[in-house]
């Protein structure tokens, strides 16, 4: 009879060890309150108010001259994107750049290289306009947002430059950086 009680004690010990291990790995279900079974309606996200208009200072003569050099209208860019540039409706010497539901107020600045820089008055973006294309940059991330933007006037000037180079290859070679393609 003693061996039977030893077996029973051993089985009870194994069973209690297994149950305590099982209890430690599976958490107990919390009791559910009767009102908790109803679905709680999520609040609709609050609509963001439009950002406040930036405070613009009176434009200098240099800024007004730079604004006159900006090509206004549509620019067709890579990946079928479009940028639209217009004069700011309230302040002379400022430019509005519209791209992907954004309207960015920019201050035109002429650079020493001849490029026109359109600097976002909030400091977030920059548009650079050179002879053959324009590009929009995110200055905070340090990357291009959209590239190869061409205004019809830029396209016309590039076509004229190609035609002049084709008509006078010796002049085009003299104005190059000194690399002549193999014939």
Features:
eight-stranded antiparallel beta sheet, 8 strands, elongated, 183 residues
Unreliable spans: none
Count the strands?
8
Strand-residue proportion = 25-35%
Q: Radius of gyration over alpha carbons? A: 35 Å
Mean of residue pLDDT values: 81
| Number of distinct helices | 4
Element order: H for helix, E for strand:
HHEEEEEEEEHH
Helix content: 25-40%
Describe the protein in words.
There is one protein chain. The protein is of the alpha+beta class and 183 residues long. It has four helices and eight strands; from the N terminus they run H-H-E-E-E-E-E-E-E-E-H-H. An eight-stranded antiparallel sheet has the order 1-2-3-4-5-6-7-8. It is elongated. The termini are far apart.
Brief summary:
About 30% of the residues lie in helices and about 25% in strands. With about 180 residues, the chain is an alpha+beta fold. A hairpin with a 4-residue loop joins β5 (about 115-120) and β6 (about 125-130).
Please specify the SSE layout and strand pairing.
Elements: H1 2-25, H2 61-69, E1 73-76, E2 82-87, E3 95-99, E4 102-110, E5 116-120, E6 125-129, E7 134-138, E8 143-149, H3 152-167, H4 169-174
Antiparallel strand pairs: 1-2, 2-3, 3-4, 4-5, 5-6, 6-7, 7-8
């Amino acid at each position: 009879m003693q061996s039977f009680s030893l077996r029973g004690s051993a089985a009870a010990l194994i069973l209690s060890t297994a149950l305590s291990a099982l209890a430690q790995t599976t958490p107990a279900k919390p009791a559910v309150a009767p009102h908790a079974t109803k679905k709680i309606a999520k609040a609709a996200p609050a609509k963001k108010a439009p950002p406040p208009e930036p405070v613009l200072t009176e434009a200098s003569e240099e800024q007004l001259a730079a604004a006159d050099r900006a090509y206004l209208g549509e620019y067709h860019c890579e990946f079928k994107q479009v940028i639209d540039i217009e004069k700011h409706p309230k302040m002379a010497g400022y430019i509005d750049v519209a791209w992907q539901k954004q309207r960015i107020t920019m201050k035109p600045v002429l650079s020493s290289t001849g490029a026109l820089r359109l600097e976002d008055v909030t400091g977030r973006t920059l548009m650079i306009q050179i002879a053959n294309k324009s590009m929009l940059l995110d200055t905070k991330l340090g990357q291009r947002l959209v590239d190869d933007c061409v205004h019809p006037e830029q396209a016309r000037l590039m076509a004229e430059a190609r035609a002049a180079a084709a008509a006078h290859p010796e002049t085009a070679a003299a104005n190059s950086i000194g690399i002549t393609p193999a014939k």
